[in-house]
Write a structure and sequence with these properties.
The protein is of the alpha+beta class and 275 residues long. The chain folds into two domains: 2-70, Phosphorylase Kinase, domain 1 (2-Layer Sandwich); 75-274, Aminoglycoside phosphotransferase (APH), C-terminal lobe (Aminoglycoside 3'-phosphotransferase, Chain: A, domain 2, Alpha-Beta Complex), CATH 3.90.1200.10. The protein has eleven helices and ten strands.
Length: 275
C-alpha cells in the first residue's frame, strides 16, 4: 500500500478485528484507509452518516482501497448513547430510501428472524449446555411467531457505543458498516434501548427516532436484543475473551428476567404502578 500511495506517506494499522483498516499521514494530511470496503460507503458518505469519502482506487491485485477524511474525535461513552442526537441519526438511517435502494442494488435480501435463529443454531455449539443460553434459545423459538417479517429498513447491525464517532467539530457519525443489512429496525433499536437507555426515557427516545413504544415493538426489540447477545457471547468465546463472555452471559440472564410487558396504551407495569 505504501507503493500505491507513495513513499512519503506514513501508513500504520488502525486496529480492528479484520486488519483491513489503516491510517495514512503525509504533510499534514490524514486519511483513513480501508481495504475492500462496500460500495455502500459512498452512499453513507453522501448522506453524512460516515466521514467524507475522498476517493476509491483499485490495486493491481484487484483489491479496492477507500480513503476517507480522518476525523479527530472520540467514540461515544455509554452514558451518551441515550442522547437525542443518537436517536435522530438512527431514525435518519432507518427512514432513508436511498440507502435502502443501494443495498437492494448490491443484492442484499431481507435478513429474516428465522435466518437469525438458524445462524444462532449453527454457531453457539457447546454454549447451549449453559442454562442461560439454553433458556434464551427457547425464548427465541417460542416468540418467533410474534416477530413479523414485513417491516424492513437499512440496519447497521452493531450499534454499540464503540461505533459512534463524535468529531472535534461536534459532528456525529455511525461507522463500521461491514455488517449492514436489510432487516427489522427493532434489531438496531433493541440493542440501543436495552443496552444504554434508561427505561423511563424510552418513549421520548423512540419518538426522536420516529417510533412508538407499542407492545409489538417491545416484543420485537427484546427478541432481537436476546438474539444479538447470544451471537456476541459466541463471538467472545471464539476469540477466547472469556471474561467478556461471562459478563455478557450475566447480562443475558438479566435481560431474560425483564418482565416489563407493555399495556395496550404503551405504558409499562412500572409506569402504571407510579399512578
Amino acid at each position: 500500500m505504501e507503493h500505491f500511495l507513495g513513499g512519503d506517506w506514513e501508513i500504520t494499522p488502525a486496529g480492528g478485528v479484520t486488519g483491513k483498516a489503516f491510517f495514512a499521514r503525509h504533510g499534514g494530511k490524514e486519511l483513513f484507509l480501508k481495504r475492500n470496503s462496500s460500495p455502500f460507503l459512498a452512499m453513507l458518505s453522501a448522506e453524512g452518516i460516515v466521514p467524507k469519502l475522498v476517493w476509491t482506487k483499485r490495486l493491481e491485485n484487484g483489491d479496492v482501497i477507500s480513503a476517507q477524511h480522518w476525523m479527530n474525535g472520540r467514540e461515544l461513552a455509554p452514558g451518551e448513547m441515550e442522547s437525542g442526537r443518537v436517536a435522530r441519526l438512527m431514525g435518519k438511517i432507518h427512514s432513508s430510501n436511498p440507502l435502502l435502494s443501494m443495498l437492494k442494488r448490491l443484492g442484499k435480501q431481507p435478513f429474516l428472524p428465522s435466518m437469525m435463529l438458524n445462524e444462532i443454531y449453527s454457531r453457539i455449539g457447546m454454549l447451549y449446555t449453559h442454562p442461560d443460553v439454553a433458556a434464551a434459545v427457547r425464548f427465541l423459538e417460542t416468540q418467533l411467531p410474534s416477530v413479523p417479517e414485513s417491516q424492513f429498513v437499512v440496519c447497521h447491525g452493531d450499534v454499540n457505543h464503540h461505533n459512534w464517532l463524535l468529531s472535534d467539530e461536534d459532528e456525529l457519525f455511525l461507522i463500521d458498516w461491514d455488517g449492514a443489512m436489510i432487516a427489522d429496525p427493532a434489531m438496531d433499536i433493541g440493542t440501543l434501548l436495552f443496552g444504554y437507555v434508561e427505561r423511563e426515557k424510552w418513549t421520548d427516545w423512540l419518538l426522536e427516532c420516529g417510533y412508538d413504544l407499542t407492545p409489538s415493538f417491545f416484543r420485537r426489540m427484546k427478541w432481537y436484543a436476546v438474539a444479538q447477545m447470544l451471537l456476541s457471547i459466541e463471538w467472545n468465546r471464539d476469540k477466547s475473551r472469556f471474561h467478556e463472555m461471562n459478563r455478557m452471559i450475566a447480562a443475558l440472564h438479566g435481560l431474560m428476567l425483564d418482565d416489563h410487558n407493555l399495556f395496550g396504551n404503551g405504558e409499562t407495569k412500572q409506569d402504571a404502578f407510579k399512578k
